[in-house]
Specification:
mainly beta; 13-stranded parallel beta sheet; 25 strands; 0% helix; Curlin surface protein; Curlin_rpt
């Protein structure tokens, strides 16, 4: 049985570190610099890797590989990387297989630089990938995955932004949320197979909180530049393509696609425009 634990830190600093390993071939590395940081790593399963780095004060980092979500299902072949720089940040990575004998590999990474940021990535099955990068203060990012072959990425730069990606169902979905500015909000929900949704917001107080793909093989790309813009999307069919481009302030787009093979492109340049499209 192979277990590896590496803890790095100066004795002059106050830190809390908790480890638990059950299984074989697991590896955990923790490096903390600063005061009153807390690191927790639990590994239940085989061949898991955890790296947890914290530089600052009062940061809290947790990696749970197996043993959560009921039934104490183990995690196998999962890798978690976490790096927090600043003060009062909190991050959580949870990884497990869908069943005890699962072997599909997962990789999840959280990087936060600033203060009072929060990020969580969790997968209830192997074979998924997730990334979060937050730079600024009081940003919030949340990603959830089940089934397999999902990919999600959240990048937020600024303050008080919120992003959520929900891939709880089906398989082979891809989602990206990129937000730059302050008080932007983005949420993507994917329930079908083989969907792709990419959304970028640059400015302040923009909303894209209802991006929903319930069908299969749908594609969406959105780009909002400005302030106080809002976009919503529902794709409940198959093989639909949608594009939204907004440059201005106080604009609104709504798109619903419930049929098959539809195409929509909404472009707004200016202020106070409204666009509503329904394709059945």
């Amino acid at each position: 049985m192979k277990k590896s634990i590496l803890f790095l830190g100066a004795l002059a600093f106050t830190a809390s570190v908790s480890f638990a390993q059950t299984g074989s071939g697991n590896s955990s590395t923790t490096d903390q610099t600063g005061n009153n940081n807390t690191a927790t790593v639990d590994q239940l399963g085989n061949d898991n890797i955890s790296t947890l780095l914290q530089d600052g004060n009062r940061n809290e980092g947790t990696v749970l590989q197996g043993g959560f979500g009921g039934g104490s299902v183990q995690s196998n072949n999962a890798e978690a990387f976490m790096n927090q720089i600043g003060n009062d940040n909190e991050a959580l990575i949870q990884q497990r297989q869908g069943f005890s004998g699962g072997t599909a590999a997962s990789y999840h990474e959280i990087i936060q630089d600033g203060k009072e940021n929060y990020a969580r990535l969790r997968t209830f099955n192997g074979g998924n990938t997730g990334f979060v990068l937050q730079e600024g203060n009081r940003n919030d990012a949340d990603g959830s995955q089940s089934s397999s072959s999902h990919f999600l990425e959240i990048i937020q730069t600024g303050n008080d932004n919120m992003a959520e990606v929900d891939q709880l169902g089906a398989s082979n979905n891809s989602a990206f949320i990129g937000q730059e500015g302050n008080e932007n909000q983005g949420k993507t929900f994917q329930r079908g197979d083989g969907n792709s949704a990419d959304f970028i917001q640059v400015g302040n107080r923009n909303l894209a909180v209802d991006i929903v793909q319930q069908g299969d093989g749908n594609f969406f790309f959105g780009d909002q530049i400005g302030n106080d813009n809002e976009s919503t999307l529902l794709q409940d069919g198959m093989g639909n393509d949608a594009f939204v481009f907004i440059n201005g302030n106080n604009n609104l787009t709504q798109l619903t696609q419930t049929g098959m093979g539809n195409f929509s492109e909404q472009i707004q340049a200016g202020n106070g425009n409204v666009s509503v499209v329904t394709q059945n």
